[in-house]
Amino acid sequence: MKNKNFSPESLAISGGYDPSTANNSIKTPIYQTSTFKFNTAEEGKAFFENAKGDAPLEERNASLIYTRLNHPNAITAEYRLSQLDGAEDAAFFESGMAAISTAILAFCHAGDLIVMSSPLYGGTDTFIKKHAVQFGIEWAEFEPGATQEDIEQLISSYPKSNRLKMIYLETPANPTLSLVDIEMIAKVRNKLAPQAIVAVDNTYMGPIFQKPLAHGADLNLYSATKYIGGHSDIIAGAASGSDQVIKEIKKKRAILGNTASPFTSWLLSRSMETISLRMEKQAHNAQKLAEFLNDHAQVKATHYLGLMEDTDPYFPLFKKQNNSGGAMIAFEVHGGEAEAFKFLNALQLAHLAISLGSTETLVSHPFTMSSSNMDEKDRLKNGITPALIRVSVGIENIEDLIKDFDQALNSVK
Ligand SMILES: *Cc1c(COP(=O)(O)O)cnc(C)c1O
Questions:
Q1: What is the side-by-side order of every strand in the sheet holding 89-93?
Q2: Residues within a 6 A CB radius of ligand 1
Q3: pLDDT band at residue 177, thresholds of 50, 70 and 90?
Q4: Which of 93, 132, 160, 297 is deepest in the core (most CB within 10 A)?
Q5: 31-60, pLDDT tens digit by residue?
Q6: Which atom of ligand 1 lies closest to the CA of 235?
Q7: What Å distances lie between residue 136 and 91, 105, 114, 128, 300, CA to CA?
């Protein structure tokens, strides 16, 4: 783009790609190549020096060597996500778990400590507790609702608190939607562990409804399979943050070899053009559906951030951190698993599937599906009961969605 003096919103649509490099094609071609030709041996040498050294980001991006390291489709996607997140750079991966595990391994080494919120996404919880520990990385977690004092105490009580390298948060948490104050966590880090990275899994709100970097986080992590991809047709992950932080992550990505492919990156670039349209419509539908569920006789409880009363102690945090209630709802039917299954099996428009953030509405049963590997005690403690249903609201006609949920709820009686 000739003039970069435009808003991030516009740059996320057509930035990160110059049509004059590809026959003036309006859309980015898919660079389906594994390697890039050097014009001279001297250029090859310079590109390698740029790639591993401290060359500015633009020069590193222009030094194309080999697709595992970097490629034009990833660069376009990374530029667009950086715009959406208010970040200096971003990195895309072949899955959300690839982004999360690579970021953890980039900053945490044997003997280091991760302090994390709970509950975490099941894959992340398993990676930290069962796999990162194989590399000698230790962990400690705090409960939903933990105060600044509780968290400071947890860190200070650790015999090796100077080895704290990452505070890892998920807010809102899945599927219970509990919130963690990112700004408070950044303060705790500044006070007790200035060497630690504050990382936020921002999958649930996506880059449109929550900007963790603006609240003092250093690193956003995503399952880009969800809202960023937005169409249930790719598995991908992302990280965004300062040039310095993302450079460390890209070094690890190059060696672990989980860079997003040209086609995945191309789909992501295309998806980011419509992300605000999709998410606003999804959140609009979610608000209407949550209000309907909240009033329904067959529904015992509805959890949706957009329903939070202004008297709720978390209301000021919600208003500070999120500019929408998002598009994830969890609700309990009266009864237990049998009633929940009856509801799920009766749906006609919404699809029974895990995952979230897509154009179609997806409905699932966390107790027996996405959270089933958690101890039953932990599931119940986190409000993941056999009667709980999770809904990722899509962009369908809202009257149709309400009609579908109404008939499925009424079939439970
Ligand atoms: C789906 C998800 C992940 C994992 O992402 P994948 O793309 O499936 O690897 C991580 N965190 C959250 C909150 C998720 O919903």
A1: 89-93, 237-241, 219-223, 197-201, 164-170, 113-117, 138-142
A2: 95-97, 121, 123-124, 174, 201, 203-204, 223, 225-226, 235, 237
A3: confident
A4: 93
A5: 999 999 999 999 999 999 998 878 999 999
A6: 7
A7: 26, 11, 11, 11, 44
